[in-house]
Amino acid sequence: MTSRRLDLYPARKLRGRARHERAFFAAMDGLDRWLPLATDRAFENAKLPVYQKAVSVRHGAPEFRRAVVVRLLDHAARLASRTPARVAAIIDWPGLWASELCVFHDADCAAGFDPERRAREMRPARTVWDGGWVEARDPSGNLLADLNLTLPAGFAAQGTEFAEYDSATAVLTEREEWVVMSFAPVQLPTSNCPTDQPSARSLP
Q: Is the Cα torsion angle 32, 37, 39, 45 positive or negative in sign?
């Protein structure tokens, strides 16, 4: 998982497009061996092994960006077939950079991502602070349908649209987070979930 690299100069042209795309596919091919399924941790996660510019809206090829989502879904389905844990592909759209695969061995950690729970409980909600606000709401569309993708068998999906306003710059940023998660095949154990679990970065 060494090909993940931040784009420090987003205005510059993407060079070596084919090389970066090949590196992503090669790294994803080894993900099954890298991501541990037997662990005493409450969850394991893996970010996209890719150069940020190669998947960005500005520079990434549309067909490659779609292929990245396809790989996430394929790997989630494959991992779910090998573990009783709950597996989730978390898709950050349109940026893709924050997308990840998660394997939850703990029911409390998985609960914050559960698509059915999000669909049931997530309503327009705004959190305000001195520097602005962030609002979570239902998405206006369906990302998987827009990309002509099929939900993996045994999985459910739910999207959340986030709008964040920075009062210092008067900039409004909008993105979507789609959780494609396997159903729980068995009752997972519960424990005190660590504060650095992936869901802590998303929900306002």
A: positive
Look at the pTM and tell me if it is higher than 0.85: yes
Q: In the predicted model, what is the mean pLDDT of residues 90-94?
A: 97
d(CA 65, CA 26): 16
Q: How far apart are CA 201 and CA 204, in angstroms?
A: 8
Encoded tokens for 196: 């650095």
Which residues share a beta bridge with 125? 136
pLDDT of residue 38: 67
Tell me phi and psi for residue 67, to 5 degrees.
-65, -30
What are the strands of the beta sheet with 100-104, ordered from one edge? 43-47, 100-104, 86-93, 171-182, 155-166, 132-137, 125-129
Host H or E run for residue 2: none
What contacts 86, CB < 8 A, 6 or more positions away? 80, 103, 104, 110, 181, 182, 183, 184, 188
- Which of helix, strand or coil describes residue 86? strand
Q: Cα 101 to the chain's mean position, in Å?
A: 7
Concatenate the DSSP letters of all residues of 109-169 into one string. HHHTT-HHHHHHH---EEEEETTEEEEEE--SS-HHHHTT-PPPTTEEEEEEEEEEEETTT
